[in-house]
Structures are given as structure tokens and as C-alpha cells.
Amino acid sequence: MVIQINKPLPPLWARTKALAALVALTLPFAAQAHIELPLMYSDHAVLQRDQPMHIWGWSAPGATVQATFDGAQASAKAGKDGRFDITLPAHHAGGPYVLELDDGTDKRRVSDVLVGDVWLCSGQSNMEFMVSQGRDAAKEIANGTDNAIRHFKVPNSWAPAPEDRLAGGEWQAATPATVGSFSAACWFFAREMERKSGVPQGLMNSTWGGSRIETWMNARTAGVNPADIVATMKKMDDKERVATNETRQRLSRWNDPTPHAGLPWSSPDLDTREWVPITVPGYWESQGYYGMDGIAWYRTTFTLTAREATRGITLGLAMVDDSDNTFVNGEQIGETKEQWNGVRAYHVAASHLHAGTNSLVVKVTDLGAGGGIHGDSDLLFVQPDGGVKRPIDGTWLFRPDNVTVSGTDGKNQLATLLYNKMIHPLLGMPIRGVLWYQGEGNAATSAEALAYRDQFAGLIRQWRSEWKQPALPFVWVQLANWTAGNDTPSSSPWAELRESQSANLALPATGEAVIIDIGNPDNIHPTNKQDVGHRLAMAMRHVAFGDGGVWSGPRYHDATFANGRATVNFNLYGGTLAVRGGGGPVGFEVAGSDGRFHPATAHIQGNSVVVQSTDVVTPVAVRYAWQSNPDKANLTNADGIPASPFRSNGPTAGSAR
């Protein structure tokens, strides 16, 4: 067993202050030694076509730096801080080319540069979600060769104040060896965009799972005082130091590097006297192992009759964060890699079972953040073939194996921190547009969901201003269908956040991909990112390039009420109303003057839907797909693109284009 007990780091505020001092001392000397470029300007880069090429970096103060690209030249003088800014002429799509810089004493050469369309992909885990985690992953990776699509992942990082340099990152061309780690939504988007345009595609992936929208804003837009953020971080550091020290103390009981006398940890004959109880399901962080990452083992037993053992069983393990190797009676019967919220259910053949007590052992590999067996307790079961499920949740045995301890600290929850380190260093690099997939982190309450409307507008305006592109195309993914668990008869934070997203279609050069038909009610991360990328591409081609044709599903325009019916009129964007699977539209509700909504029947009448309910004699309001998981809602256009959820009586009714 290997347990890495790292010494606690100094408090964050102290580290930040010390680092700032170190940077202040070292940067002038570094600048005198060589030309430094932002990491985005590195080998295999994609630069934006048909816009002036802004190249910046650092050299010796006062040095004249010359840039050369495909025969074009421009130069600039470095300021007192060593920074230089050079603008080369706009360039058509193509490549590969070489970018060269020369300050008289040092030269830099950036090779294999393509010119095409560069997209900033940002948000939380559904944008961070990789090709390797998605639907048909093996097939997509095997077919992932395309040198004209390149991806740059900005490392998860943060800073208390805006910084000019990224923490790391490199450009990678799409190959079966690399594409598995690309943002899936952005990859499928780029693949379609390249096929339609023939233009190279560059994907700047600046994402962090679980992040709130305010973490991607500057202090002014977020409405916060940077000093208050530093004070909050200090409190978080103090709390983390206590929690991680408790974990280290708890782990110190296991100091034998060769436990169990050489038997495999999966063996049913293992001596488990040094193992401890743990509640399953439940993250281990919430049970005394805060900040622990790595490998740990779980074990329990279940009993079968002779008849059941000869038939085989299905074993439900809920979800495992991130990977599992599962053993029954010492034999591996299942394995799932890096699917932290994927439900496990393994069939166990009779050859691995016997009458009486059977051992169940799960090796859990946690790559970061939460770890362990988690999810709903009813997903933990043994079900004999042809029989009923028997629960196996409760108290199991637990033993850490090869682990490290470090704080998880929640920096992706605090305003400005991700913007400062993951967006601010990108400012100045010309881009063609922004793809955004975020909102789950702000949908816990109705108040948060309502506030998101103005927050999102603020973020769009801020980024456009800082990129000096007032009409920078901005397309986002509306939240998918998912059972959030916080719906009530009078509110649905998830639906209300969708409404706040859609309200920002009132801003120019915006678009929205509606995906309430392809989510998973039990999984906040839909694996079907192919359709997500397709719908993003349709919207972006319209927003950025003015492409005609149908690019959006039906969207609420207005409603009239008469004769006990609501007549809903839609913007159709060149399409026609249709129903997925045929039949009549499902998902509509109406309310009378008491404000209580009731399920309603509906039928299509031209470009409208007529809605009525026997429970509401005089309707005054109508809504559609108004819940976190409207998976039965089936109104689409003839191309199968779903209608966007709406309510006629909400604060944003009718505000979308």
C-alpha cells in the first residue's frame, strides 16, 4: 500500500503573495533572455482567418521585434515591461505556414500553423466532457483522424487577479491518439463545420466541471470586490487545512506496505481485520477522507440459494467515481473506466457463483474531486435471473490502497477566479465565435435561475467588449433534460434557467441549441454529444455566416386565449411544426386565474398549437416542457429539432428572437 502524505502547503493567500513577488523579480530577467509568446502561439496552432493577426509576447524592454508570416512582415517595440504587440495583415484560410519572430538577439519559430476559424469552447463539465466518455467512443476515436481540426485544452487553473499567462496547454491535431481527450461537443461541432466550409478549425477548450457562471466573469461584471475574494479564499484555505490534516491522520493507521500476506486484494480469503466500515452509497470525502484521490477498495457479501447460483445474477453498483474493477468470489466480472456518473450493472454468470455466501469486491480508481461508490441506493442490488432485486446498500468494508491527499477547495465556485487564469490570458487572440455549455451549476434554486438571465447577458457583453468584437457570435447549449429533483408544482429551477438562457437570444448574433430530447433523466451528462455538436453547428453557421435554411426548432412567439383554449404561435425559422413519433403534441399545460397548471391536450393548427384542458375552463397562461426532465415533450419541426420550453406568464415571455 502506498499512501502519499504530503506536507500541508502554506495558506493560499500567502502562496499568492509569495508567487507574485517571485514573478516580479524574475520576469524582467526572463524577458531579456529570449522572446516569449503566449502558449496559444505554438507549433500546430490555428490562427483566425480574414481578421488582422494580433501577435503579442515579451522580449527585452525597448527591443524591436519583427514578425514574419507567409511573406508578410510587421514589427513593434517592446515596452518597459517587455511586452510587444504586432498586427499582421488578415490572411485567407490555408496552411501549413511558419510564424517567425526576431528581436535582434533571439528568434522564435512557430511551425505547422494553419489559418481557419478559431472557436472558444467554454463552460462546465458538459463542455469539458471528452470524446472518450461519449456515445460510440471507440468508433469515434478510431475515425478521429483530421489534421485540419486542432484542439487546445487550457488546464484547470485559477488566480486571484487577472494574469497574462496560461498555466499550460498545447495544440493537438486530431488523431486516434489525441481525439479521445478533445471536448466532445466541440469536436463534433468542428467536424461538421469543416465538412461544410473546408476551412481548418481551431478549438480553444477553456472549461472546468462544476463551475458557476460568475467564475468566468471579471470582477466588475460579477459585481465583487477582489479583496473580498482573497479573504474568502483565506477562509477556505484554513478550512481545507483542517480537513486534509484530519484525512492524513486517519490514513496514518495504515503503514504496512505489504498487507494481506501477498493475497490479491480481491481475494475472498483476505484478512480484513485492518479494513474499516464505510457507508455505501456515498462519496468517501463525506466520510472522513476529504481530499483523498487514488485507489481504494470496497467489499461486502451477498447470499444466494443453490437455485439462484445456477441461474446467474445481475449486480447493480450504482455509480463509481471514476473507474471500477469489480470482482465476485475473486474473479473480475466487470470494469468501467472514467465514467464517474455512469450507472454500473454487470451480469454475473453462474460459473462465478456458488450457493451460500459470495464475496463482492470493488476496486475504485478516483482521478480527482469526489471518489467512491455513489448514487441512489436503489441502484445497488443483486437480482437473481428471473427473480427480484435485493438491496446491497449499507455498511461495507473499506481500505485505501494507493492514494494522495490534497485539497479540492472549490475554486471553480468563486467569482472571477477562472476568468483570471483561463480566459484573461486568451484576450487579444482573434477568434470567430464562442460556444458555451454551462448553467447546471447555477440551477439549484429559482432565485439562482432567475439571476442567471442578467449574469449571462453580462458575461456575453463583457467577453465581446474585451475581444473588441461587439457582434462576436455567441452560441450556447440549453440545459438538457435531467431529473434534477428540485421541481415543485409551482417552480422548476432547471426550466427557469433554460428560460434565462433563451432570454439572451434578444442579444444580437446569438443562437441556442435545444437538447431536451437527447438527455438522460438519470445522468446529468448526456453521452450523445454528436447531436449537440450538430445543433451547435447549425446555429453557428446561421449566426456567424448567415447561412440560410432551418437552423432552429420552433420557439414561442405569443399566445392568445379565447373560448376555453390557448392558441400558441411560434417562430419557425423556415420550418414547419411536427411531432416526434407522430400523434398529438405532448407536454403542454394551462392555468386559470388561480395560477395552477394542469396537463392539457393539444393539436397543431397551421403554424400554431391549440391547447385546452377540461380542468381549466378559462385559461390565462400556457407553458410547455416546464420541468427539469421534459422527456415526453415531443413538439419539433419537420427536421426533428425540438421546440424550446416556454411559459407565457414568465418574466422573459416573448423576449427571445
In short:
With 657 residues, the protein is an alpha+beta fold.
Name its key features.
single chain, 657 residues, alpha+beta, Rossmann fold, Jelly Rolls, 3 domains, eleven-stranded mixed sheet, seven-stranded mixed sheet, 11 helices, 35 strands, disordered N terminus, disordered C terminus
What does it look like?
The structure is a single chain. By secondary structure, this protein is of the alpha+beta class. The protein is 21% helix and 32% strand. The protein has eleven helices and 35 strands. Strands 2, 4, 5, 7, 8, 9, 10, 11, 23, 24 and 25 form an eleven-stranded mixed β-sheet that branches. The protein starts with a strand and ends in a 10-residue tail after the last strand. The model is unreliable at 1-32 and 653-657 (pLDDT under 50).
**CATH class value of the largest domain:** Alpha Beta
Largest sheet: 11 strands, mixed
Helix content: 10-25%
Number of helices: 11
> Helix- and strand-based class?
alpha+beta
Low-confidence stretches are 1-32, 653-657
Mean pLDDT across all residues, rounded?
A: 92
CATH topology of the largest domain: Rossmann fold
CATH architecture name of the largest domain:
3-Layer(aba) Sandwich
Strand content: 25-35%
Rg estimate, integer Å? 28 Å
Ends distance: 60 Å
- The shape, in one word, is globular
How many structural domains are formed by the residues?
3
Number of strands: 35
